[in-house]
Each structure stands twice: as C-alpha cells, then as structure tokens.
Amino acid sequence: MSSPLPRRLGGRDHLPLGLGCMGMSDFYGPADEATSIATIHAALDAGVTYVDTGDFYGSGHNETLLGRALAGRRDRAFVAVKFGALRDPAGGFVGFDARPASIRNFLAMTLKRLGTDHVDLYMPARVPADVPIEEVAGTVGDLIRAGWVRHFGLSEAGPASIARAHAVTPVAALQIEYGLLSRSIEANGVLALCREGGIPVTAYGVLGRGLIGGSRPSGAGDFRAHSPRFEAANLARNEALAAALAAAAARFGATPAQAAIAWVLSRGADILPLVGARRPDRLAEALATLSLHLPAEAIAAFEAAVPDGAVAGARYAPDQMAMLDSERVAAA
C-alpha cells in the first residue's frame, strides 16, 4: 500500500483519516476532558480535518467539549454532526425524532454548543420510520440554503433510502460501519450505490469497537458490555480472529490497529476511516498508518486473518439492529 490519497468530501480534500469523538463523552466508560481536548488539538495539528460528533453523545456534552476544543481553530475542522436520537435523564435511548421542526430545534442547540455559525455535514443518525426520508432531506436542504448547514449526509442507510434522499438533496457522504469485522456494505448494494452516485463513505467501527487491539468493556456503563460480539459465547471466537490479525500485522511491522485501518484505506479513495482515539498516543498510532508502506500481500494477509463473515455475533443488540435501515436490506 502506497501513501493513501486524500479523501474528497464536502468540496474539500481531507487527510485520509477522521476523528470520531463519541468515546470522549459516552459509551466507552469515563474519559478525561483535558486529554480529550489534547487529542482533538493533536489531530488538527497533524492535519486531520474531518471531526465527527452527535448531538446525543453525552446528551450534548460531546458537542460542548468539541466546541471548547475548536475555539480559535474552527476553520481547521470539517465538523460532521448526527442528530435525532432521544435520551432520558439516565442516559437511556427513548426514541428517534426527525420531524422538520425537531431538526431545526436540534440544529439550533448544536450551533450553540459548538460555538459556530454552521455545521459542515448534518445527518440523521438513523433513517426514521415515521418521517419520509425525502422530508428529512428537504428540511436539511432548506437549512443548507439558509447557510446554517453546508452539506447533507446519511448514517446507516440502505440503498433505497440513499437514492430517495439523494434525489431531493445531494447526499455528500454516508456514515456506516465498515471494517474487517463488518463488511455487509459490500454485499447489500450500499457501497455499489454510493459509488454509482459519487457518494463517499465515512467508515466507523474500523477497530471493531476495540476487539482489534484488545480493548474490552470497562463496566456496566460501557455499551460493549451488552454487545453481542463481546458476549462470552462469541468473545473467544472474536479474540482468536484478533490474535490472527495481530500475528499477520507483526509480520509486516504494523500494530493490529494499523492493520485494520490499512485494510479500510485499501478499499478505495472514496472511503474515509474514522478512529475513535481518546488519547494522543492512540491517535499517533492511527496516524502512523498513513506512513506505512505495506505491500499488497500484507493487505491480503490481514484479510485472510479475518475472513469475511467470520466474526461471531451481530454488531448491535437486537433492538438496535432493528433500527438500522442498512441491516434491514442485508436481512431481506
């Protein structure tokens, strides 16, 4: 693998690695705010431009944190925001709302928390079941014309929803889980449709939520404690896959995380992998992937270590899987 090309998204070129900020506020156990901000600053200083958040991460905490980190540096970041998930005071999820008035309300709070006058990429976190996706696309299109949003995106959408939304407001990017452990977009038509429409993919879950690299649930507050892939019945199988990848990576002078990132980078210049680094050293490890010169046989060895479909367990619990428009396509 030669040096990866920049990723073109939202009218600008990006370093071929983006920073996902979710874990700095939610889902993976406690995080230190000062360390999180230092990580964001280190990413910007290294040339990372794509920064991803959601208005429901930490019930607004993540946007507030990112806003503090971007003070005086806003022009260096392309900020992607997901909206629509509803939380209760205990942090539980209580639904999804993508009605036009709600979208405008969510955006108003997002702009305030981020301390900015626009969002670069705005996308529903899920395809809603009770609001036509055309209506969501039209509402975000109105916000683009008003100057509050620059580009419209989708998350975890299937081919039909992507096509319907794109016909109303151009879809600038699709965010979806994609990596050695999750390759359904290759088989269910999502990747093919995106390529046909010139829609780049931002890939999350590249490291299998820590399965690759050895991170494990930190306690009951860590959502992985309820993830099928971390259940006892599946974990031994998945740890064996991670060990095989680690052995293959070591043969080529890479860490397991770098091997996983390199594999995603190899899938095409229209795919931008996101990493959820919460510390500068983890970020540095991920960024070092961009300087590795891996031969084609290395990428083949990584894929052979984690064959397609070998992972044990679904990527979310059943109730969450049911909300994924992309997975409804895969199951059809």
UniProtKB/TrEMBL annotation:
Residues 16-305 form the NADP-dependent oxidoreductase domain. This is Aldo/keto reductase. It comes from Neoroseomonas eburnea. Keywords: Oxidoreductase. PANTHER family: AFLATOXIN B1 ALDEHYDE REDUCTASE, ALDO-KETO REDUCTASE YAKC [NADP(+)]. Gene3D superfamilies: NADP-dependent oxidoreductase domain (3.20.20.100). One of its GO terms (molecular function) is oxidoreductase activity. InterPro entries: Aldo-Keto_reductase, NAD(P)_OxRdtase_dom_sf, NADP_OxRdtase_dom. One of its GO terms (cellular component) is cytoplasm.
